[in-house]
Design a protein that fits this description.
19 strands, binds S-adenosylmethionine, 415 residues, 7-stranded antiparallel beta sheet, globular, 10-stranded mixed beta sheet
Length: 415
């Protein structure tokens, strides 16, 4: 069957299967969230998608793209929506603000908070607010308030409530100017962007500050409007490779392009990982230690010549300066402790490639970060996160980093 062929499955059947799959993988953990997913007809909020695609647990449905084809709006993947709704600690009667609309997630929230609750959803795009409002009315959730506006200004008065019990941010956010709308004890779930990394973090408000819980790897469409992420991007190798970094001196695209075609230096770390093993905390460690932290992206269709060999398909860590860069790579290697008589299995060794006049120095730094992470932090649960309004003094961690944003300070501490 092709993706566009009519489905022989009914929406009810697909919805039941989705709830079962989300429960099985642990994304749905409470009966209230299970009931919400079982009741809200997801396909009615994604009419452009074939039924199976609308109910795929892992996949987003893109609802709008910009001129260069990048998604600017989507109905998020069910697994991530379930995780974020569980994290938000919703309850009947709760007042909830959603940033980034689509209608579906707001309907799920409305199911959980019930008639005594309040759901306000904000989106910057009139195309999205129009359809979200229409879909919500058609599916029986007219009580959800849909607001057209920039989330950056939400705390300045157009959202008619203060003291929300929960704020769900469903768009990649570099900052949280709406944080003061959250009641003390309330929960704000936000895919927070720092140093080009995104983690969905649950922030619980304690006084003026917020304690961060359960950072989860995720990807979201980027914030538009006044809260757009400050970042630099260099597209090199005829579009085959992108280098992104949050701050730092201005990237010299011509020099980085030349760096790529000049000779490469490489070093192997002796640090191995199993196939399929996640090493997410390595990214967090490198961004803690190095202000040159960025990401390298390979376009797997355009980079036919394999000019770069990043360790991961998405979000591969790199150190980037105006004319040079180094990034993480992999080669096959035996890993101890495999099943069977051999006592080892085939996995990967982490290595580093460096390019440009400063490539060798960046390579040495990145190599050192990988070795230190492996020795001291690999088995560690990862850093603690806390968020504070920009105007209050923040605790500076012994091992960690403070990210200064426009409205807030994000403190990441390894302890
Ligand atoms: C992933 S979609 C939201 C998904 C939605 N919550 C759902 O039900 O699945 C992200 C949305 O954020 C919106 N957005 C981007 N920048 C924004 C801003 N500054 N203020 C409000 N909304 C914004 C986009 O227009 C887009 O519709």
């Amino acid at each position: 069957m092709t993706a566009d062929a009519p489905s022989s499955e009914t929406p009810d059947r697909l919805r039941a299967d989705m709830v079962a799959a989300l429960t099985e993988r642990g994304s749905i953990r409470s009966p209230e969230i299970a009931t919400a997913f079982a009741r809200v007809p997801r396909e009615r909020f994604a009419p452009e998608a074939p039924l199976e695609a609308a109910y795929s647990v892992q996949d987003v449905v893109v609802t709008k793209r910009d001129d260069v084809g990048r998604a600017t709006s989507s109905i998020s993947a069910p697994w991530l929506q379930a995780e974020m709704l569980e994290a938000a600690g919703l309850f009947p009667g709760a007042k909830v603000l959603e940033i980034g609309s689509g209608g579906y997630n707001a309907a799920l929230i409305a199911e959980v908070v019930g008639p005594a609750g309040l759901v306000v959803t904000v989106d910057i795009d009139p195309f999205i607010t129009e359809r979200a409002g229409r879909f919500l009315a058609e599916t029986g959730y007219p009580q959800v308030t849909v607001v057209l506006g920039d989330a950056e200004d939400a705390a300045d008065g157009y959202v008619p409530v203060e003291g929300f019990d929960a704020i769900l941010v469903t768009v990649g956010a570099w900052d949280c100017p709406w944080g003061r709308l959250l009641a003390v004890g309330g929960r704000m779930v936000v895919p927070l962007v720092f140093g080009t990394i995104t983690r969905s973090i649950t922030f619980v408000r304690e006084g003026d500050g917020f304690v961060g819980l359960d950072p989860t790897v995720c990807g979201f469409v980027a914030m538009q409007g006044a809260g757009v992420h400050p970042h630099q991007e260099a597209v090199v190798a005829d579009g085959g490779v992108r280098l992104t970094i949050e701050g730092g001196p201005e990237l010299d695209v011509g020099a980085l392009d030349r760096a790529l075609t000049s000779s490469r230096v490489e070093a192997w770390t002796g640090v191995t990982v199993r196939r399929g093993e996640s090493f997410d905390s390595l990214n967090l460690w490198i961004v803690t230690m190095d202000e040159s932290f960025g990401m390298i992206w390979r376009d797997w269709e355009r980079d036919g010549g394999r000019v770069v060999e990043p360790a991961t398909r998405w979000y591969c860590p790199a150190l980037i300066t105006p004319d040079s860069f180094a990034y993480l790579t992999l080669r096959e290697a035996p890993v101890d402790g495999g099943a069977g008589e051999r006592g080892w299995e085939l996995g990967w060794e982490l290595g580093v490639h460096g390019h440009g006049p400063g490539g060798a120095e960046l390579m040495r730094r990145l190599h050192g970060h990988v070795r230190t992470w492996d020795r001291d932090w690999r088995g560690h649960p990862g850093p603690d996160f806390a968020l504070y309004p920009a105007e209050v003094a923040v605790p500076v961690p012994a091992v960690g980093r403070v990210f200064a944003k426009r409205h807030t300070r994000l403190v990441m501490a390894w302890a």
